[in-house]
């Protein structure tokens, strides 16, 4: 039986002053899967993500979230999604709990609902013991955990993660990976951008490889590696007149 479609992107394009950030992008995300947008900086990943979360209006094409149009039904779409941005929106003087309380008020959660959700999320991301410390005392990994808790506060059906482990140390990255897997285990649909090959390989059920605003291919990590015909790493270094090339199969 076919899986339900959570996100349907059809011939999506976005241009800024003549620059084509995204061109004729189409893909579907199934309910309950982790779908990755993989590509270098400037490839168009964040543009696609910000269109899906209703922050950008496409130049052409459309995107739907559980059948709701990201432009016409923007208010209803926002009630279904959570978003963890690449740039941390952390007030260094607020505690972790105060961040969540402020966000709960913005979401118009009742006091009882807010208290319940905040306690649950602080435990989920293992910040309950540090909830009443100012965020300025948090490590990078702890701040990212708080970001994820903020994204989960409205109890979304779809969570969007923009470069979730950018700049984190190895141990913190592995922890974030565990949380993302746990969310999938709870049935949540996750869409994430990354430029880390290992992250896409470890987390994503399927991924779209994007370059210069165009999707080059879509598939599972295994399918894409088989299609490459092997594990090949090629590195070319250039410094003034010297050139070194290294390749490993």
How would you characterize the overall build of this protein?
The protein has about 250 residues and is of the alpha/beta class. It has one domain: Rossmann fold (3-Layer(aba) Sandwich). About 35% of the residues lie in helices and about 30% in strands. The protein contains eight helices and twelve strands. It has helices at about 45-50, 75-80, 95-105, 110-125, 140-150, 170-185, 195-205, 220-230, and strands at about 5-15, 20-30, 35-40, 60-65, 70, 80-85, 160, 190-195, 205-210, 215-220, 235-240, 240-249. The chain has a six-stranded mixed β-sheet with strand order 6-7-8-3-9-10, with helices on both faces. Strands 2-1-4-5 form a four-stranded antiparallel β-sheet. It has a two-stranded antiparallel sheet with strand order 11-12. The longest helix is centred in the last third of the chain and has 16 residues, at about 170-185. It is globular, with a radius of gyration of 19 Å.
């Amino acid at each position: 039986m076919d899986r339900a479609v959570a996100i349907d992107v059809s011939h999506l394009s976005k241009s800024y002053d003549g620059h084509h950030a995204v061109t004729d992008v189409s893909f579907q995300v199934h309910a309950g899967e982790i779908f990755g947008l993989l590509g270098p900086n400037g490839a168009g990943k964040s543009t696609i993500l910000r269109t899906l979360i209703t922050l950008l209006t496409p130049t052409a094409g459309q995107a739907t979230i559980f059948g709701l149009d990201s432009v016409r039904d923007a208010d209803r779409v926002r009630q279904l999604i959570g978003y963890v941005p690449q740039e941390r929106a952390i007030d260094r003087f607020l505690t972790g709990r105060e961040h969540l309380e402020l966000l709960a008020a913005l979401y118009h959660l009742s006091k009882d609902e807010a208290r319940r959700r905040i306690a649950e999320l602080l435990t989920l991301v293992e910040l309950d013991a540090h909830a009443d410390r100012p965020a300025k005392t948090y490590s990078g990994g702890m701040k990212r955990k708080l970001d994820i808790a903020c994204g989960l506060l409205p109890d979304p059906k779809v969570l969007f993660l923009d470069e979730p482990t950018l700049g984190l140390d190895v141990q913190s990255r592995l922890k974030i990976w565990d949380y993302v897997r746990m969310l999938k285990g709870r049935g949540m649909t996750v869409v994430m951008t990354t430029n880390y090959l290992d992250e896409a390989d470890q987390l994503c059920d399927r991924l779209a490889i994007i370059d210069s605003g165009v999707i080059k291919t879509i598939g599972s990590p295994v399918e894409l590696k088989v299609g490459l015909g092997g594990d090949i790493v090629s590195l070319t270094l250039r410094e003034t007149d010297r050139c070194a090339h290294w390749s490993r199969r």
